[in-house]
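Attaching the record inline, Q. Sequence:
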Amino acid sequence: MFNRTPRTKTRWVLKSQWLIVLLTLYFGFALNLSFWRFINANLEITNGRMALFAVSLLIVSFILFAWFLSLVVIKPVTKYIVLPFLLISSATNYLMYTLGVFIDADMIRNVVQTNLHEAVNLITLNGCAWVLFTGIIPALVLARVRIQYQPFKKELATRLLFVAISLAVVGGFAASSYKEYVAFFRNHNVVRKLLNTINYTYGIMCYFKEEAEARRSFVWLDQHAHSMPYPDAEKTALIFILGEAARAKNFSLQGYEREDNPLLTQQDIVYFSNMHSCGTATAISVPCMFSPTGSKGFNATDAKFTQNLLDLLTAGGYDIFWQENDQGCKGVCERVPSEDMVKSNNPLYCTSGYCLDEALLEGLEGKLRGLSKNTVFFLHTMGSHGPTYYQRYPERFKKFTPTCDTADIQNCPREAIVNTYDNTIVYTDYIISSVIDIAAKFPDLEIGVIYVSDHGESLGENNIYLHALPYAIAPEEQKHIPFVLWMSERMKQNDHINYDCLKNKARTQAFTHDNLFHSLLSLLEVQSTLYQPEKDIFRDCRTKELPF
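Structure, as predicted:
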């Protein structure tokens, strides 16, 4: 297989056919641990037909890699193509296997839209060791190998013969196990997002195809939106706190056994116990919740070029101000004034490229005091962003111990992971309650506070960590989110809101991010052709109908 060539700089000589075989085995097994783990967990061999299907699945998967490698192991370009695939596949193999993530176009979008600090958080010693031994070292070995090719016609004939034989094999398996293939992939269609190299290659192609198709003019859905308020003299202010990776399951307001909402339980709030996100990643959920299309019709690429809620509120006469402390507004704040807390770099709360969420509280009272017109403040928090949960709160909020003070959360005891995460919720409780306390200092304003998370989080249940699984298969922990509302007496009175009715509705009815767009138009009394009253949370609890 290998021949030594001591008189050349290259130590080994390997025939192209053997290189394809070795790479097929390596890519097919060593770099696809998550794929085979999924197959092992979800394929039940109950009879001979299922046993045949299992064997065929193994063989067909390896044939797919062999076909791919037969196309790229070409004399001038082999190493230029295979070496990057080795390195990237090693990293994606690590992320999928240790964190339980799936890779598709949405995950590629998350990667493209991330920043340096978030990327650095995912770089761990274990991850580096994994990539070193499964990616870098094999790549270095391949770089030292001299590949020996047959004459062109013979090389082509060999590969065509392999394709013909393998097609016959695949055809035979398809004929014998067609029903099993259809049933398995219909019930587990996300498995393709675990087939390493193919998943991210296809995802990248889909992502850039969507981006290329989206280079078009901006779409204004309603150019005539305008304010149509109830007759009152007070200025309106709304503080919208956008949470990050907070899951309802770990809120004591939801019934969690730990007291991690000690301050909010003392506030006169409405807590929505059955609220779900429209995505499992920030890049989807944030633009989706401010879009009129709703989750079913939502497309993240289209959203960049389409009028959103912030645009409508601006047209309705509101001043809009976005304060950013997470990983960007994902395009929704591009046409309104904004401030990046990391760039502002308040030394009281910011260090090493990230800021504690208390940075968002600085100056808020002064801005409310100097209000000259109706205003909405959007505070985008870092919240419970993982995997470095321990960096999301100051030491005084370290209520639950022991904690997991590393990015390698999968190597911590689950108790420590949950403790650390719950400390982020205690801190979030403080941030929300502090905003409410600030708002309560202005009884002459028609003022309210809303908190809602962008998505939830997995903390190791079923060996799944973080978030961003495809929505159809994502666990409830990644979709069930907290939603908190506080209204001043002036807002309740001026907007004719029956607060008790709202509390009862929040306890007994189900809501999603889809309700936010229409409910905020209603709460802020902005008339638009995009408003859908059936999705308005406040509609049934008004003692007086809207002016529009």
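DSSP finds 18 helices and 19 strands in the chain. Residues 34 and 97 are 5 Å apart (CA to CA).

More tomorrow.
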